[in-house]
Write a structure and sequence with these properties.
Elements lengths: L2 E4 L13 H6 L7 H12 L5 H8 L5 H9 L8 H10 L3 E6 L3 H10 L8 E4 H4 L6 H11 L6 E5 L2 H9 L3 E4 L15 H8 L4
Parallel strand pairs: 1-2, 1-4, 2-3, 4-5
């Protein structure tokens, strides 16, 4: 193993993406989850700037403030920064492979000091395609100069884990809430570290 590739939401950031619709529904309870996700996914693919998401969902006023208030509800996953630092200290490379709007990703990476912890960053909003599309994985591997067999991929979503595995990566499901039923899933970064580096 020469590199570890990380999903953002549900792995590096505690929020999984499923909290956005309930957050919006506090203000607009009439909006369905599908309606909210339909707009949000357009930003994930780079088709809309993130502030336009809020506007199309019905928010008015200072949209930058509204967006910042939402993003500031998100937290770094326990142990994420320490794990990233530890694997880099072991000489492994790291990459972020994230379905996200360009603006949200840039803000959160800056807020949590993540940019220096990744050798490569692939964000769907910057690229116009998203996981599980193999192009986002292929691009990341090119940036790293590595083959799939050199890499481990970590994600909380089964279909993304399966997509990475199909490309030849070792892929592990991240499941801090223990809800997946996947016996090979890891519960958090301490458990992952124990699995990957049993000698410490």
């Amino acid at each position: 193993m020469k590199a570890i590739l990380f999903d953002m939401y549900g792995v590096v950031i505690r929020q999984t993406g499923d909290d956005f619709a309930p957050y919006v529904q506090r203000t607009f309870p009439q909006l369905s989850t599908d309606e909210i996700h339909g707009v949000w996914l357009r930003a994930d693919k780079g088709e809309l700037p993130s502030l336009e998401v809020w506007r199309q969902l019905g928010f008015m006023g200072d949209l930058e403030r509204i967006e910042r208030e939402y993003l500031d509800t998100l937290e770094l996953m326990d142990g994420a920064a320490d794990f990233l630092d530890a694997v880099r200290a072991k000489g492994l490379r790291t990459a972020l492979v994230s379905n996200d709007s360009s603006e949200w990703s840039r803000y959160l990476r800056g807020k949590f000091d993540l940019n220096r912890r990744f050798d490569a960053v692939s964000v769907s909003g910057d690229l116009g395609f998203s996981k599980p599309d193999r192009r986002i994985f292929d691009r990341t591997l090119r940036l790293l100069g590595l083959s799939p067999a050199d890499c481990l991929y970590l994600d909380d979503r089964a279909h993304n884990v399966e997509a990475a595995s199909a490309l030849g990566m070792r892929a592990v499901r991240f499941d801090p809430d223990g809800l997946s039923g996947d016996p090979e899933a890891v519960s958090g970064f301490p458990a992952l570290a124990a699995r990957l580096f049993p000698s410490g």
